[in-house]
Amino acid sequence: MKNNGDTTRVTSMHSISGSLDGSDCIIQIYGMHLGRKYDLLDQICSIGRDPQNTITLDSDSVSRRHAMIELTDSGRTVRDLDSTNGTYLNDIQIRSAVLSNGDLIKIGDTIFKYLTGANVEALYHEEIYNMTIRDGLTQVANKRYLLDALDKEFSRCKRYERELSLIMFDLDHFKNVNDQFGHLTGDYVLKEVAGLLRRRIRKEELFARYGGEEFVIVLPESGLDIGLRFGEIVRKMVEEHKFEFEGQPIQVTVSVGVATVTAETNTVSDLLRAADERLYEAKRGGRNLVKG
Questions:
Q1: pTM for the full model?
Q2: 213 among known catalytic residues
Q3: Catalytic-labelled residue, pool 213, 239, 244, 281
């Protein structure tokens, strides 16, 4: 679900004197060039696949003239330019909408975050830090943060002889979703699953995107029995949830593997490997199952 790459070409545009202070920008938080910052210095910033746009995104999911961000009397406004796949603001498809600080703009398979205000530089650096710990699409912890946190939790578990379990799950036949409905639908499913389960995670637990369609939940102070019950909750929540993208219903299920730290678990890699093996047992068993 990644871009084939994006390039930027800045074209000369007329600026409104006194209306532009250089404090507005968008940052790419999902796509090929994470962290790339685009200052909104002109009245209009156009975005699309055509090289004549202010921001060029070289992706099949982006129209030649996809969207623009315009300075209006109401403020910065994002407008869809009759694109094929639509423009989304905070996961809602829009024709035109005034932007607020922190808004997420999705164009094709790229997501931008809009920043504005006197402290925009501080917000920018904060967002760059967030990119090191959070997945840009699903907004849950990323693999890097997961491994760091899991390493600390594993050491604590071994030192104080505490229980620790790990759930690993992925979406069944996810490639078929992308192939049949397109990557934008696949992105929607990943975000919907993450949002659905994030509300079920307690403060002391950790939910992360491990990679692709694979997710991990870390359960401190929890044995295998608790892990298996939680895994069944995850499986059932996804199976019973209504997934629908642009009027198209999508059946989504997950396969779940659960592992716990034992005397034979010497490293974090051992724990992850054990959960991964249980996950593939669930897949070989017919999918939409929990194995531990």
A1: 0.85
A2: yes
A3: 213
